[in-house]
Amino acid sequence: MKKTAIFIILAIILIPLFSKIAWGDDLLELEKRVGSIEEKLKKEEKEGILSFKGKRFKLGGEMEFEYVDTRSDQKIDNPEGHFQVERFSLIPQIQVAENIILEALLLFSPEKTDVNETYAVISGLPLDSFLKLGMDDRFISEKPNRRTEAYPLIGTAFWRDDEAGITWSGKHKEFYWNLSLTNGFALGKKEPSEDKSYQMIQDKRQTSDNNENKDIGLGLGWKRSFASNHLIDVHGFGYFAKLSRDDIDFLKKIAGYGSSEVRMSRRYGASTEYVVNAFSLGGEYIKAEDGTLDRDGWFAQASYRISFGKRTFFPSIEPFVRYGRLNIDLPKVFSDTLTWNREMTTIALLVDIVKNMKVKIEYYINDEKTGGNDVKNDEFLAQLEIMF
Question: What pLDDT is recorded for position 21?
Answer without folding.
Answer: 44
